[in-house]
Amino acid sequence: MAPSSSAPHPHYDRLIAAARALPPLRVAVVHPANAVSLEAALASAALGLIAPTLIGPRAKIEAAAREANADLSNIPIVDAPHSHAAADAAVAMALRGEVDALMKGSLHTDELMGAVVRREGGLRTSRRISHCFVMDIPGHAQPLIISDAAINIAPTLEEKVDIVQNAIDLAHALLMPAVRVAILSATETVNTKVPSTLDAAALCKMADRGQITGAQLDGPLAMDNAIDAEAARIKGIVSPVAGRANVLIVPSLDAGNMLAKSLTFLGGAYAAGIVLGTRVPVILTSRADSEPARLASCAVASMLAKAGRERLIKAVG
Questions:
Q1: By CB distance 3.0 to 4.6 Å, which of 6, 208, 281, 286 could disulfide with 301?
Q2: Residue 92, Cβ neighbours under 10 Å: how many?
Q3: Domain limits of the chain?
Q4: CATH level 3 topology of 17-124+278-316
């Protein structure tokens, strides 16, 4: 069933509707060996978002289908003995052009990403691989992209350049009308004792010099004055980004993970997860994800793949 227009997550409704207008994305679903991961793929297929190929131990996949009361008669299955073999097979299919994206099943993220990031035979590009959450927060006027909360633990300034550019490319793929990037820290002033403020200032100057393109950047900004116009006004921050940011770049994985999960579990937000900087999009879902978040992750991948095919962005392909 399509998400209801009266649901408290209208940004996902619009995103899924836009993706449904595209041809189904060919997706290798890696090791969907439990009911939750299998249902996520089949629900996306039922909406026409993806055309899945299931990769993993056939017996476990079929057992998961019985548990979910699902019919796999029209779904191709590639038999692989275990999760590592399934990840390797999915990456090989992507390299041969047989699928347009990968989707995490019931294996651990590091098992899938180990095959993706392998220097020989993996899906690396010239870009640093990074992760984005596309978050739909009840009552917030626009979706928020948060990066990086899942892959890069303590990125260097050089790595943050690609993390920022990947997030900007994603925003363009999602047809955001204006991309406003806040480089987050604990404070909005540059402080030599807080390295993330120095990185933020450097990234903004790099954008001024054309080393980062496609968006307005400002930073350092604290979380309050990045997204709340009144907080920015009280602190006297005048910028096209402060109070209106729709892309949040965090200083570290710890900060990003806690921010995303706080919004999810305290603020009722949905979080769609996607990996960029790879040959094809990689859809990362969690067992705790809601069905709309899983559907939205597939929708994000579909729109990202389209932008990559059309050479509008460089974050995939």
A1: 281
A2: 15
A3: 17-124+278-316, 126-271
A4: Rossmann fold (3.40.50)
Is the omega angle on the peptide bond into residue 24 within 30 degrees of 0, that is, cis?
A: no
pLDDT at residue 194 above 50?
Answer: yes
262's tokens:
């706080």
Please name the amino acid found at residue 90: A
d(CA 139, CA 39): 29
- Cβ atoms of 182 and 245 within 8 Å: the answer is yes
**pLDDT tens digits, one per residue of 2-19:** 333 345 688 999 999 999
H-helix segments, the chain: 10-20, 35-46, 58-68, 83-95, 109-117, 157-173, 195-208, 223-227, 229-234, 253-265, 291-309
Contact assessment for residue 272 and residue 296, using Cβ atoms and an 8 Å cutoff:
yes
The CATH number for 126-271, chosen from 3.40.50.1000, 3.20.170.30, 3.40.718.10, 3.30.300.30, is 3.40.718.10
Q: What is the largest CA-CA distance in the chain?
A: 62
Question: What confidence tens digit (pLDDT) does each residue in 20-42 have?
Answer: 999 999 999 999 999 999 998 99
CA distances from 99 to 26, 30, 61, 91 (A): 5, 12, 19, 9
Cα separation, 20 vs 25, whole angstroms: 10
Q: Is the peptide bond before 136 cis (omega within 30 degrees of 0)?
A: no
Tokens 């402060």 belong to: 242
Instruction: Return the bridge partners of 58, or none.
Output: none
